[in-house]
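Reviewer 2 asked us to include a model.

Predict the structure of this chain.
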Amino acid sequence: MDISLYVHIPFCKKKCRYCDFVSLNSSDEFIERYLRALEAETVARSKEYKNAKIKTLYFGGGTPSLLTARQFLRISDAIKNNFDIDLVETTVECNPESVSEEKLIAYKNAGVDRISVGVQSLDNGILRFLGRIHDREAAINAVKLAVKYFDNVSCDLIIGVPGESVFSVLNSVDVLCGEGITHISAYGLKIEEGTVLYDMQTAGMFETDDDFAADVYDAVCARLRDKGFHRYEISNFAKAGFESAHNKCYWKRTPYLGLGAAAYSFDGFSRFNNTENVTLYAEKLESGILAEVNRATLSKEDAMTETVMLSLRTEGGLDVKSFNEKFGCDFMRDKAEALEKNRRFLQIENNNIKLNKEYYYISNSIISDLI
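Predicted model (structure tokens):
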């Protein structure tokens, strides 16, 4: 069985205002403790997955580049020494303030072939609003450094941020593309409960504008298309041949295993995850116990819903014939009313359903109707 492997490094120098991921600022001593627990989980899970072959490997966070080169190599070696590895892609997420030439060389020597840089914006005002601790210059320098060592470099951008302009977002796109990157993920800002931005919005300190965010998204899509990037998923754009193999496994619902606190896994039938409590995660592994806290077997209806939702986010859309054969149904008949209601938003031909690209920004409401 081919699977993808995700490794969560939950440490950051400072939590960003928009972030609701499991991340924390911690001492060097606790980071070492966490890494020992991660090594223990790697050994334990490899025994469960002894017949699996790892095809993609992704170090995410948090901030994986916060680890020293030595610490990163420890975890990389533990994975290689315990799992059956046949990698087509290995990605490390980096933040501008913690990436360095030494670390990039270590990644390269460890077999990493893809770097994802958390730029978010090249507008210093927007970076301050988001609570980022790097500035425009640091972000550009980090991208330059990554491109120096890697042929496949991706950058994250957050769009639809209060106070930004179409000009500033397109400037970020232009500068990053000019540095030779091969992939951009452009995510609309989401204000999640429990974040600093949520509290600020609740206090009336700013408002969001969905119409403006849609305009920014359309402008980014057009600019990236002009620069030779194709949109292969609603928020993801790549030069030909540089799509994220790891992320595509999520959208295709192929099995993946998550290691680390708060990491999620899918074995093809069930979803399960580790505790979000990083201290409890370490304590469990120190006691020889996996830190898994939830496991649920998906019903047929769950699997159908996920397949429709994830397929329609991608350029390939939903293969209706394959869907009907897999689930023993007639999608066109069963969803006739919803399909008719949303007909102008969809391309329906040759047993395939896709979102019309000009309506990607309202995809959630369209997909909701169909599930």
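The domain at 2-251 is CATH 3.20.20.70 (TIM Barrel). Residues 319 and 352 are 5 Å apart (CA to CA). We have added this to the supplementary material.
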